[in-house]
Design brief:
The protein is α+β, with helices and mostly antiparallel strands. It has helices at 15-38, 53-66, 77-80, and strands at residues 82-88, 94-100, 105-115, 145-149, 156-157, 161-165, 170-176, 186-195.
């Protein structure tokens, strides 16, 4: 009776074809023998290329901190209350989504350009002449960045850079000071809002 573990070796031809066939068959026989002896073959990277579990965990923490996240994947306190809002000139008010508590310290920085009528483009500090009584903030300038807290809050001036303390609880609204008609306005301001979390 023939031994089932022996594989007949038949190599046809000569030269390169015969040598290649013999090499492939040798690899097959070595692999077959390893499987029969050990049951399975597990391929692992060299020790020099393996990363300890601790280093992998540290790597994840490092990535999270670079994105403004803590080790648990939540926003860190330093980034929780920083908001960027684009205030377009064609509407009286823009909601920021920032809800303030009474007594909360707020700082804003704005940049960009807007106009209330053609040829009057200015930055967030507004134009060089005062607004009218019918403006949303009569004491300010045309085109000036203004704010209010809540839908019925009293408007106040902001400009390019300002800091204030919230006098009531409510959502912060931002707008561009004008009167009567915003449809002919152009441009926008980009506003960075920083709320003190302490």
């Amino acid at each position: 009776m023939a031994d089932s573990n022996k594989v007949p070796l038949i190599v046809a031809g000569a030269g390169v074809v015969g040598t290649l066939a013999a090499a492939l068959l040798s690899v097959y026989l070595v692999h077959k023998l390893e499987v029969e002896v050990h049951g399975s073959v597990e391929i692992t990277p060299p020790a020099s290329q393996q990363v300890p579990a601790k280093d992998r965990r540290d790597g994840l923490k490092s990535d999270a901190s670079e994105e403004g996240m803590n080790s648990e994947g939540s926003p860190s306190p330093a980034t929780q209350r920083a908001t960027v809002v684009v205030v377009v000139a064609t509407v009286p008010w823009v909601r920021t989504g920032v809800v303030l508590d009474e007594g909360r310290a707020v700082a804003v920085q704005a940049f960009g350009a807007a106009s209330t009528v053609p040829g009057t483009e200015s930055g967030p500090d507004g134009q060089h002449y005062r607004c009218e009584e019918s403006c949303i903030f009569p004491a300010g300038y045309f085109g000036q960045l203004v704010g209010r807290i809540g839908i019925t809050g009293v408007p106040f001036g902001l400009g390019q850079q300002a800091a204030f303390t919230s006098q009531a609880r409510g959502e912060l609204y931002l707008g561009i000071n004008d009167c009567c008609d915003w449809s002919d306005n152009e441009g926008s301001f980009t506003v960075n809002i920083h709320v003190d979390t302490m």
